[in-house]
Write a structure and sequence with these properties.
- The chain is an all-alpha fold and about 700 residues long.
- It folds into three domains: about 5-280, no CATH class; about 280-460, no CATH class; about 500-698, no CATH class.
- About 65% of the residues lie in helices and about 0% in strands.
- It contains 29 helices and no strands.
- Helix 2 packs parallel to helix 5 and helix 11 (about 255-275) packs antiparallel against helix 12 (about 290-310).
- The longest helix is centred in the N-terminal third of the chain and has 27 residues, at about 30-55.
- It is elongated, with a radius of gyration of 30 Å.
- This is Protein Lines C-terminal domain-containing protein.
């Protein structure tokens, strides 16, 4: 297929197929006409798929990368002709997204996805096509908000986009609705997935640039103006905007559902943008990521308001929970993919209190999982029940607490260097400081304050009568916290790594800053360190696995958890080797450790009724009052050493068995990645165990 005919052939194919159905200004489909249109569209889809297959077979003979970099290859006349063909194709298909047939909309969406792949593979007009597709989405949204803004000409004045193309697309989208916009977003998201598979940075960069332009140009603030509309006796022949508002949340369930689908697709689209933008080298030197991330971060408060704000009570509980799940996923993905500034982190903590307050304060207790544990993580499970606090709330609680802890820990660990790296640090900030160091200091205090208040709500220290009870309760809360995440592997190790990350900063800050605020007591560092001590948590983690090295091996070779599990084990082994006495003196009552659980993971009978011996909480250069507490802890540990060595023995056997299994697989070239660093850490651990045995402790 020659490069000067492929777009023309595609244009004629679509025009001949859909013209009989789109000749009138308003498309009205009878049942028979809808059936004929679906048959015609199915034929078009098959033909384009065959054209795409032929193009892929010839791709080795073409110089697509060079063509993709130069729009005017073959002359400006050829470029102009190709551009006009693609605009005609879009105009003929996009008008079909305005009809009231979900089957037609779905099929047209699939055709647009294949055309996007076809254009990307052709090596020509990609920038023009993807920009036009975003213009269509912008026009569809603007049409729904037309009552609140002046007539828009977004894109018409763009030097890379001609006015005639803009107004042609605009005329085809005069009857666009939320279903139209939702379908276009679905097309764009599937196209982004295709680009990810192709691993073409140049095409992805042009896509992200168009996405940034779209997100910046749409008048999103007018979404906040949409209120619950008229009463149920409103006339059917009201104006388009009044009809839309009235239908949005009260009478017309179809329109309400369409807006819900649009918001759901939009959040998913933003999640995909976040993931893909981090795989592309940014063009702007001042950013360590693509600028689209800053725009998405600024969207978070808007999305929470649109999805969970004043209209939440009119949504089904399952839809509300779905929105919560997706919004938490977006915020967590942003927090892991980019450096969030102090003001953004503080703002997000406030948003968590506004929209997820009951999940933050939901008791972290032992979970009673039954046979339906495999469904527990589904955000749609509540569709089977109208209960607000169903089993699904545990899933949302995990994500909420993880985001809360990550925001607190990020604030605590902020330094002048990390603040400079945060390109979005000042977005939506109402805080003013004379220097970055002042902002960092304020951020650290806010992080400790939020974390302290949250821990106090779950584990009040005022109820502890003595030091042993204090440590016992801390250990019990740590265990319950760990149990909350044990049955959801995809975030288990993210949580464990977060808890590991805070320890160095607790040690660094123990002598640097003193708190005079009455809300935070001076023993805050000791309080946090007692609960999130990494050595104790590692022991509890192994106990939850019933000290089964095969479970650890499964984690290590899993494509979902392999990298994070390996990182966690590496960091834990280093901590264990540097805190050897604390590791070997860890103690838990025997009857708790020996209890069995499903999947060979340990489910404890009561998270707050642990009979444990106190153990050391070591923090360098800690204040004198905290040193006294640690001395008592150490003395208590040594006092009960002879009776409490069982956890160390089981942990030792588990880790040494893991070492033998990894070595065996690596020797046979069956391990999925190079485990030599992990084996070195395990060898160091083994040496310390042998040294311990030579001194008379087995």
């Amino acid at each position: 297929m020659s490069s000067d005919s492929k777009f023309s052939l595609l244009c004629h194919l679509i025009d001949d197929s859909v013209r009989p159905f789109t000749e009138s200004e308003v498309i009205s489909l009878t049942r028979d006409k809808e059936k004929d249109l679906l048959i015609a569209l199915s034929r078009v889809l098959r033909e384009i798929q065959l054209m795409k297959l032929a193009l892929d077979c010839d791709s080795d003979k073409e110089v697509a990368p060079e063509l993709a970099c130069d729009k005017d290859v073959g002359g400006s006349g050829m470029h102009h002709e190709d551009h006009n063909c693609l605009i005609k194709i879009l105009a003929d298909l996009i008008i079909l997204l305005t009809v009231e047939s979900r089957f037609v909309q779905h099929l047209v969406g699939n055709i647009l996805v294949v055309i996007s792949e076809f254009v990307a593979a052709s090596g020509k007009e990609w920038d023009s096509f993807i920009h036009s597709l975003f213009i269509c989405l912008e026009l569809a949204i603007a049409n729904m908000l037309s009552h609140f803004l002046a007539p828009s000409k977004n894109g018409a004045g763009d030097s890379s986009y001609d006015s005639s193309s803009f107004f042609l697309l605009k005329s085809r989208l005069e009857n666009a609705n939320w279903s139209t916009a939702a379908t276009i977003i679905r097309v764009l998201r599937k196209t982004l997935k295709y680009l990810k598979q192709e691993d073409d940075d140049h095409l992805c960069e042009m896509y992200l640039d168009s996405a940034s332009s779209f997100l910046s140009d749409v008048p999103w603030d007018f979404m906040d103006e949409i209120q619950i509309g008229q009463s149920s006796d409103a006339k059917e022949n009201d104006s388009q905007n009044s009809h839309f508002i009235d239908a949005l949340f009260v009478r017309k369930s179809g329109e309400k559902d369409a807006r819900v689908v649009f918001l759901g697709n939009f959040i998913q689209f933003l999640c995909s943008l976040v993931e893909q933008s981090c795989a592309v080298e940014p063009k702007v030197d001042s950013y360590d990521h693509h600028p689209v991330l800053c725009i998405i971060i600024s969207f978070v408060p808007k999305l929470l308001s649109w999805c969970l704000g004043k209209h939440e009570n009119f949504l089904k509980m399952s839809v509300s929970q779905y929105f919560r799940h997706k919004l938490l996923m977006l915020m967590l993905r942003l927090s892991y993919q980019t450096c969030l500034g102090c003001s953004t982190l503080i703002s997000w903590l406030q948003l968590l209190h506004v929209y997820f307050e009951e999940l933050l304060w939901k008791p972290i207790i032992k979970l009673d999982f039954g046979q339906e544990e495999c469904l527990e993580g589904s955000p749609f499970l509540l569709s089977l029940s109208d209960r607000v606090h169903g089993i699904n709330s545990h899933h949302l609680q995990r994500w909420t607490v993880l985001l809360f802890v990550k925001c607190c820990f990020s604030l605590i660990s902020l330094t002048r260097e990390t603040s400079k790296q945060c390109g979005c640090a000042t977005l939506n900030s109402s805080l003013t400081f004379d220097s970055i160091s002042d902002l960092d200091s304020y951020g650290r205090r806010q992080g400790f304050l939020e974390l302290y208040k949250w821990l106090q709500g779950h584990l009040p220290t005022d109820t502890f009568l003595d030091h042993e009870m204090y440590l016992e309760k801390c250990r019990g809360f740590s265990l319950s916290f760990l149990q909350l995440y044990m049955h959801e592997d995809d975030i288990l190790f993210k949580v464990l790594l977060e808890l590991l990350s805070i320890q160095p900063f607790l040690e660094q800050q123990s002598n640097k800053e003193k708190w005079t605020n009455g809300d935070v007591k001076q023993d805050t560092l000791f309080y946090v360190a007692s609960i999130f001590n990494p050595v104790n948590l590692f022991h509890l983690f192994l106990a939850e696995l019933h000290y089964d090295h095969q479970v650890l091996l499964d984690y290590l070779i899993s494509k979902d958890t392999g990298i994070t599990c390996a990182e966690y084990l590496l960091r834990c082994l280093r901590t264990v080797c540097n805190s050897w006495n604390l590791f070997i003196t860890f103690s838990v009552h025997k009857k708790i450790v020996d209890q069995s659980s499903c999947k060979k993971r340990k489910i404890y009978s009561d998270g707050f009724n642990l009979q444990v011996e106190a153990s050391s909480i070591t923090i360098k250069d800690i204040s004198s009052s905290l040193e006294d507490k640690c001395k008592k802890d150490i003395e208590c540990s040594h006092k009960h050493w002879k009776n409490t060595s069982q956890p160390f023995k089981k942990a030792k056997n588990c880790l040494l068995s893991l070492k033998d299994s990894v070595e065996n697989l690596h020797r046979k070239n069956l391990f999925p990645y190079n485990p030599e660093v992990l084996l070195k850490r395990l060898t160091k651990f083994q040496e310390l165990c042998f040294d311990q045995k030579s001194r008379g402790f087995s």
